[in-house]
Design a protein that fits this description.
With 134 residues, the chain is mostly helical. Helices cover 82% and strands 0% of the residues. Its main location: membrane.
Length: 134
């Protein structure tokens, strides 16, 4: 029961995080006409901040009394999200540069699917596990 509620919450907040990522990306590329890579990075920053707080509070229900553990987990979360940013950029680059017939928005959707799976695994097993962070 706990696992299915956790996964349901992860999916809900993952969709909202992805929506934030996607809308910021669309705004930056289509309205402001920024480069797709720079826009991806800025969209990522907005999404990762939203994701940390929602994952901590609503998905994994991680409550740490120790401020040091909170800070360590935040930086660990950011570390794994930086890795997911690299995954996002790599998938976007491969699709846009090598599959020229695909639109950048299609590439962004595909990249986000890969990133969502990566982020769940790293959050569940490494960031919000019950173990103390060294």
């Amino acid at each position: 029961m706990k696992m299915s509620k956790e996964i349901t919450n992860y999916i809900i907040f993952g969709i909202l995080t992805t929506l934030i990522n996607f809308l910021v990306y669309v705004f930056l590329t289509k309205v402001i006409s920024l480069n797709y890579q720079f826009s991806t990075a800025l969209a990522w920053i907005a999404a990762v901040l939203f994701a940390y707080f929602t994952n901590k509070k609503y998905v994994f229900r991680a409550g740490y009394d120790d401020i040091i553990q909170n800070i360590k987990r935040f930086f660990l979360f950011v570390h794994y999200r930086i890795l997911s940013l690299l995954v996002d950029l790599l998938v976007m680059y491969i699709i846009i540069e090598f599959f020229l017939y695909l639109d950048d928005l299609v590439a962004k959707i595909i990249a986000n699917i890969v990133v969502i799976i990566f982020n769940y695994i790293t959050s569940k097993w490494f960031v919000f596990s019950n173990k103390e962070v060294d």
